[in-house]
Design a protein that fits this description.
671 residues; mainly alpha; Rossmann fold; Serine Threonine Protein Phosphatase 5, Tetratricopeptide repeat; DNA Cyclobutane Dipyrimidine Photolyase, subunit A, domain 3; five-stranded parallel sheet; two-stranded antiparallel ribbon; 30 helices; 7 strands; 48% helix; 6% strand; disordered C terminus; DNA-binding; chromophore; lyase; Cryptochrome/DNA_photolyase_1
DNA sequence: GCGGCTTTACG
DNA sequence: GTAAAGCCG
């Protein structure tokens, strides 16, 4: 028997449950499908593609050593390409590992549906997380809504994460003769030169990931606790790109780090113990990003909390440009942005500094910043990216307070006390004494002259002073509360006028220069296969486990639930991903006519389609319907259903109502 | 060792 | 903003 093993972001042969399943059951066809257009705006950036290219090539050599090779396919429809591979190789099974970003949730469900319809046995596995999102629930069976409660539970689960598995000793290859690889172009000519530098600093690939893990555990891990807040990042693990592409299993990381911790604990090495706790917390945040994405599949484009819905974001492309170029006049921010541009890397601490500056001082819409991180980071990761920006923007229950502005000058002396980081990335400030390095605008003229600095000329004055930013933020909040109150009054009067003029951040388009990049790529890579009509792809299923009685009343028989439970450890319960949508908005709005009210479709893939093609308006008449399938009830939704953020995060929304104790309310009330 | 003040952390 | 930790007399 032959199985297709579909590699995605699990580019390793070790501790890879899908590959192991394939090897166990007979002959293996290993395949990677490159179909970036399926991810809409989130076409991978230059450095991310560079990494992927190297990683795939190393995976291929490992597979060749074991007895097969990696088939690569260029596609605009992963699922149909998989079906082709299955048919041309005579495979009967498909195995893959779970992903939790919104695009994958939808695509993978569709893969299961279509391949199953074609008589293929499809099995999927957990390879990316310590625990599946649907395993980690509070005492009421609800998902956690704060990180610390989530992570506490993860560390106290009644069963351990699965121990990592060894790589297979050999692989029996399926028949590849009728399934040739496509050549995939990961970089264009203009990118090749910049990419050449990356190889000096980074070594992608699963075996290199293992080396990086060992190096970290035997070196910087011990002092992680004391060093972790220094901008000069020689003390971080550098594992994030490896983890993003699944070159090393997070379970292996967890296992090895925990082992070290026990060792240190026995030696009475409390500093080492504490370091491990802190490092594991960052692993936990990665887990939590998947958890959030799974439970709230729109978190990459819509705030989880709706209290900033009427915030007047400053839609200013010049600000945005100054931030990207590292010309804001704040040395720590600028050094970070230059480092990011030059290397695709940024210490976590500095990510917080630059993104907080972006949101609080510049008051730019957070999705622009998130998109820029996506485009430029070597470890660009949609779920982590979204979690980070929502945390900074104050749209999570456990976010930073929105009305507090961090001061880059103070942060500078804390994270870069000697100014070495700033001097490395801002050569124009290299000769400035440490006393002034994080606030050159206060330096006496003779000091500046001696350092060869002319503010406003070879280094900018602050783009906005912190005091101005503080008062501007207060004004903006006042404006927001006013607008919110007006809207509420209008709603209570029963008229709908005045609803249209709020500038919701989800409606703010990406700036042109960012979009052009995407559009060019989309056009350039267009193959003969037409892009499918989008609605076809938007059908998540109810295969599963977490269906609760109150959600589905009479329509879900207890048989369905019991049946689903049997499988719950291995299969993604795609209903859970819709839990939010199902429980409140969809049920509430069933039967309502959204029609023109349903405003713009906000799901990125739709926007991308609309931008790049004359697709016929998505027929976004936003129907919510249920249909029978496989003896179970399958809710069908289209993105326009939930495009109205009112239905997801509005003040009458479930997420807020369930957490009345959370501090976001203070914001609204102080107004 | 204690109280009171300052600093730091806060996902 | 609050609470814990660190520091000092």
């Amino acid at each position: 028997m032959t199985s297709v093993v579909w590699f995605r972001r699990d580019l390793r042969v070790e501790d890879n449950p899908a590959l192991a399943a394939g090897v166990r059951s007979g002959k293996v066809i290993a395949v990677y499908v490159w179909a970036p257009e399926e991810e809409g705006h989130y076409y991978p950036g230059r450095v991310s593609r560079w990494w992927l290219k190297q990683s795939l090539s190393l995976l291929d050599s490992s597979l060749q050593n074991l007895g097969t090779s990696l088939i690569t396919k260029r596609s605009t429809d992963s699922v149909l390409s998989l079906l082709d591979v299955v048919k041309s190789t005579g495979a009967t099974h498909l195995f893959f590992n779970h992903l939790y970003d919104p695009f994958s949730l939808v695509r993978d469900h569709r893969a299961k549906e279509i391949l199953t319809e074609n008589g293929i046995v499809v099995r999927s596995f957990n390879a990316d997380l310590l625990y599946e999102p649907w395993e980690v629930l509070d005492d009421e069976g609800q998902p956690f809504v704060t990180f610390s409660s989530f992570w506490d539970r993860c560390l106290r689960m009644p069963y351990d994460p699965q121990p990592p598995q060894l790589p297979p000793k050999r692989i029996i290859s399926g028949d590849l003769s009728r399934c040739p690889s496509d050549t995939i172009i990961f970089e264009n000519d203009s990118e090749r030169g910049s990419n050449a530098l990356l190889a000096r600093a980074w070594s992608p690939g699963w075996s290199n990931a293992n080396k990086a893990l060992t190096t970290f555990i035997n070196g910087p891990l011990l002092d992680y606790s004391t060093n972790r807040r220094k901008a000069d990042s020689a003390t971080t693990s550098f594992l994030s790109p490896h983890l993003h592409f699944g070159e090393v299993s997070v379970r292996k990381v967890f296992h090895q780090v925990r082992t070290k911790q026990i060792l240190w604990a026995n030696e009475g090495n409390t500093a080492g113990e504490e370091s491990v706790n802190l490092f594991l917390k960052s692993i936990g945040l990665r887990e939590y990003s998947r958890y959030m994405s799974f439970n709230h599949p729109y978190s990459h484009e819509r705030p989880l909390l709706g209290h900033l819905k009427f915030f007047p974001w400053i839609v200013d492309e010049n600000y945005f440009k100054a931030w990207r170029q590292g010309r804001t006049g704040y040395p720590l921010v600028d050094a970070g942005m230059r480092e990011l541009w030059a290397t695709g890397w940024l210490h976590d601490r500095i990510r917080v500094v630059v993104s907080s500056f972006f949101v609080k001082v510049l008051q730019l819409p957070w999705r622009w910043g998130m998109k820029y991180f996506w485009d430029t980071l070597l470890d660009a990761d949609l779920e982590s990216d979204a979690l980070g920006w929502q945390y900074i923007s104050g749209t999570l229950p456990d976010s930073r307070e929105f009305d507090r502005i961090d001061n880059p000058q103070i942060e500078g002396y804390s994270f870069d006390p000697n100014g070495e980081y700033v001097r490395r990335w801002l050569p124009e400030l290299a000769r400035l004494p440490t006393e002034w390095i994080h606030h050159p605008w206060d330096a006496p003229e003779y000091v500046l002259q001696a350092a060869g600095i002319e503010l406003g000329s070879n280094y900018p004055l602050p783009i906005v002073t912190i005091n101005a930013a503080k008062s501007r933020l207060q004004e903006a909040l006042t404006h927001m509360w006013q607008h919110e109150a007006n809207t509420r009054a209008v709603l209570e009067n029963g008229t709908e006028e005045g609803l249209g003029d709020s500038l919701e951040d989800t409606l703010i388009a990406f700036p042109q220069d960012m979009q052009m990049e995407l559009d060019q790529e989309t056009v350039r890579n267009r193959t003969t296969t037409p892009i499918r009509h989008y609605e076809d792809q938007m059908v998540p299923s109810l295969t599963s486990s977490l269906l609760r009685v109150e959600e589905d009343e009479d329509e879900s028989s207890s048989d369905d639930r019991n049946l689903a439970h049997d499988n719950s450890r291995a299969e993604v319960p795609t209903d859970a991903m819709n839990r939010e949508l199902l429980r409140e908005p969809i049920q509430r709005e069933l039967g309502q006519d959204f029609g023109a009210q349903s405003i713009l479709p906000q799901f990125n893939m739709q926007i991308a389609l609309r931008n790049s093609e004359d697709s016929p308006a998505e027929s976004s008449s936003a129907t919510t319907s249920r249909r029978e399938r496989d003896g179970g009830v399958v809710p069908v939704w289209s993105p326009a259903n939930s495009s109205n953020s009112e239905s997801f995060v509005g003040e009458d929304n479930s997420y807020l109502q369930r957490h009345p104790q959370l501090n976001w309310r203070q914001l609204s009330q102080t107004g």
